[in-house]
Amino acid sequence: MLFNNTTEPERWFSGQHRAFYRLLPELHRWLSSPLGVRLLAIQAQQLEHWLPYNFGYHLVQVGVSPDLRLVDACRIAHKVILTPRLITTNCSQLQGSLTEWPIQPNSVDMVFLHHALEFFENPHRLLSEANKAIIPGGKLIVLGFNPYSLLNLWRGLGFPHYKFLRQAHFIHPGRLQDWFKLLGFALDKVCYPAVKLADTQYPTKLDRYCESIGLGIGSFYIMQATKETVGMTPIKPLWRPTAPKVVTLPLAEPTTRR
User: Fold this and answer.
1) What secondary structure letter does DSSP report for 178?
2) Strand 108-114 to 58-63 pairing
3) Which secondary structure element, helix H or strand E, spans residue 137, and what is its range?
4) What predicted TM-score, i.e. pTM, was given to this entire model?
5) Minimal CB count within 10 Å: which of 89, 92, 131, 151?
């Protein structure tokens, strides 16, 4: 994937997300490899079962995917990629800082984080920005690599195709669910597909067996959460409008009685 040679505001890329900014070209090249293409194909296949049931007006994608193919099945009409650097793609893009999203708070129906938390220096800040952007009742979908997977073992052993993933910080699914609770999200569902990413057939018998017994050892996980709306009790004002009183003058009494 080639990037535009435009002058980009370097002031956005200082500190917390400089490494993510520099890694994006390498990530796109890895996703163009046979293993990366297979990974995206399985992820798209899995998301096809989830996304058609989500509705709204605006969807924001943040992550390593160079296009919006993963969210094609979603019925939300307006989809945009929020990225710190522009890429050559036909998809709608919004260039801006990932630590200060250029998006109005409570205006987005869905945020899709595609392997963004693993490569971003401050995943808490990224989740916080997503939380601010999502409307009450909106959806947050996080797709990340599973630390309890064969993929994590292979990258630790230094297999050539997985060596690049050593730069990723795999986040434990339980920790991510704790972050959801702190931000006021309720977990809807989670799955762990692709136990053996190198297999040509998906899902395999091993995938079906692990899913049947609830064993989460797939190569990646997908979590969907809903931003809960805080219940509000209307508070009535203590004061009450009073009707104007008619001032009556005291009647004059006779000074002498008969």
Assistant:
1) H
2) parallel
3) strand 134-145
4) 0.81
5) 92
Name every residue whose Cβ is closer than 8 Å to that of residue 55 and which is 6 or more positions away in sequence.
75, 76, 109
Percent of the chain with pLDDT over 70: 81
pLDDT in tens, 188-238: 999 999 888 776 777 888 888 888 888 899 999 999 999 997 655 556 556
Measured CA to CA in angstroms, residue 213 lies from 88, 188, 201 at distances of 43, 19, 21
Cα(76)–Cα(57) distance, integer angstroms? 5
**What size, in residues, is the chain?**
258
Nearest to 141 by CA among 242, 63, 38, 234: 63
Q: Residue type at 32?
A: S
Residue that is written with structure tokens 């990340």 in the block: 144
Q: pLDDT tens-digit profile of 57-116?
A: 999 999 888 888 899 999 998 999 998 877 777 788 888 888 889 999 999 999 999 999
Rounded to whole angstroms, what are the CA distances from 240 to 224, 233, 237, 244, 245?
Answer: 46, 19, 7, 12, 14
pLDDT of the residue at 203: 84
Contact 152, 146 (CB under 8 A): yes
Element (H, E) at 46: helix 34-47
- In tens, the pLDDT along 24-44 reads 788 888 888 888 899 999 999
Q: Residue 186: exposed, middle, or buried by beta-carbon count in 10 A (0-12, 13-18, 19+)?
A: exposed
